[in-house]
Amino acid sequence: MLIGNSILIPYRPIIDYSESETYATDVFASQNNTEKRMKIVENPKRSISMKIIVNNERELQDLESIVTYASRYYCYVPLWFSMVVAKSSSTSSTISCDTSLMDIKVGDYILIDRDYAQVTAFDNNSMTIDRNFNLNNIRVAPLLYATIQNSNSYSFVTKKVGEFTLEFKELL
To answer: Following CA atoms 118, 120, 123, 125 in sequence, which dihedral angle do they give, to the nearest 10 degrees?
Structure first.
């Protein structure tokens, strides 16, 4: 699924998922062997590493296509550690959930089940999105605008079972 020219990676990792932040600094050393660090960028770059296992031929082909497209362009990857479950029980454009720990702002995209929406407003207890969804106990996660790294690997256990190790780096 495309968001503009970028592809959405909706697969949830089963094992080996990590999120990290990289701070870019310049180090200035003094004559008395102390050092001072000055930040180069305002916000740290985030990275995601995950292992995805697919167990049917259709998902395997879909994931291969997504990875191929993402390697040429950009992608949106869910931040699974920031996932929340929607408390709403109807079709709505307002999601009742705790957003205090979600790293989102107005204009960001979020994953809703295996689809996406754009955030138009939010506070600590809810967020408003740009279209209606059936929000009955649906997982919601912020999406990171990223580029896929070249250090990815994959292997096939059988014709229908594949294991992908993927790494992504945030685009600022």
So the answer is: -50
